[in-house]
Amino acid sequence: MQMIFQRTATFETVRRPRQPSRRGAFALEPVDSLPRLLQRIAELAGRSLEPNPFFLPEFLEPAIQALGRRRVKLATISDRDDLRFFAPVVATGRGLLSGPQLRIWTHPYAPLGSPLIDRDFAKQIAESLLAHLSTSGRRQLTLPDLPLDGLTAAALRAAAGRRGYATEASLQLRPILRPQAGDGLHTFDEMVAQKRRRELDRQLRRLCETGSVSFMPARTPSEIDAAFNMFIALEASGWKGRKGTALQRRDSILRFARAAVQRLAQKEQAAIDVIRLGDRPIAALIRLEHGGLSIPWKIAYDEEFAAFSPGKQLMCDATRRWLLDPAVTRVDPVCDEDNPLMAGLWTERERYGTLIISTRRWALGARVSAGLINLRSAGKRRAKALLSRKRPTKSTARKSN
Length: 401
Description:
Elements: E1 25-29, H1 34-45, H2 57-68, E2 72-79, E3 82-92, E4 101-104, E5 116-117, H3 122-136, E6 140-147, H4 151-163, E7 165-175, H5 185-191, H6 194-210, E8 213-218, H7 221-237, H8 239-243, H9 251-266, E9 270-277, E10 280-290, E11 293-301, H10 310-324, E12 330-331, E13 349-358, H11 364-390, H12 393-399
Parallel strand pairs: 4-6, 11-12
Antiparallel strand pairs: 1-2, 2-3, 3-4, 3-5, 6-13, 7-13, 8-9, 9-10, 10-11
Helix pairs in contact: 2-9, 3-4, 7-9
């Protein structure tokens, strides 16, 4: 494949006189401050306790423009000119049995709530967050979609144990892949049952009998642009298009997704894998990458070839490459625990959920919040189960491809 590199501008440079930052100062910045914080966020992302590509400016700025401009603020903790903490947040008013609070901003297109925390100052930053809650009148910090056994959760839980209270809600056991914990391709053979591997191999041989099959990654801006258009066409032609959940359902969502992927690709933090049958794309996978973390963000396939499981073939190919890549330490599909594609492929699970930090020792408000979140989660699961029972078997099988 001929590679043509073309660099485009992402953010307009904003020059403002730099104000001296107080040591350990917490601030809520307007979203218009993002261009001014670009360099400092990039530096913090390189030393973050846990990576999160959704909080990189290349993804965050178009997401805010499309989804949250009116209500999102940028939470920062600075140490002179260095950022030690960064996350988009929503400040809410007084709730049931609780005062004003902060909530890390996540959404269906970015379901990972790990803030960027300087790993060399994690304990101090966690203490600073609790101190800010105590002095500002905001009694509660909520972190949805968080790996509950990760380093971020551990640091915040420890600080809350000294200065307040921590509780969890909406617990899930999500599929996860840790390539460095295994033995390369041998790990794939152990993960996927022999019967399933044989069936996938048989389907791939049958697909190859119909024409030339190629697995091709797109990384350069020109390749990304072409592959993204292929992905959009595949997604819109399938069940997501019929259900109204495809990216192109709204122009603002499509512009955000295209801009985020293109900007991350310019930083070598996004790629799109495509399976082609001859010149025809039949499956595409968008991957986001940051600090050893790889996220298979979106996948789509041509339902005309559902009998060959092109979505599964593409994910299996990506899994093998992740297992052989020393730069990848963790692969998180940021999906529900019962996702038919990932749950059936990867065997390891990780606790995910909402972590609620309170400055109150008994934290009645935090306990009530956790109970309400659990009720909503249970309601969503019941509704999803009812819909899946009503859905035709053929449609369900197609979604797992």
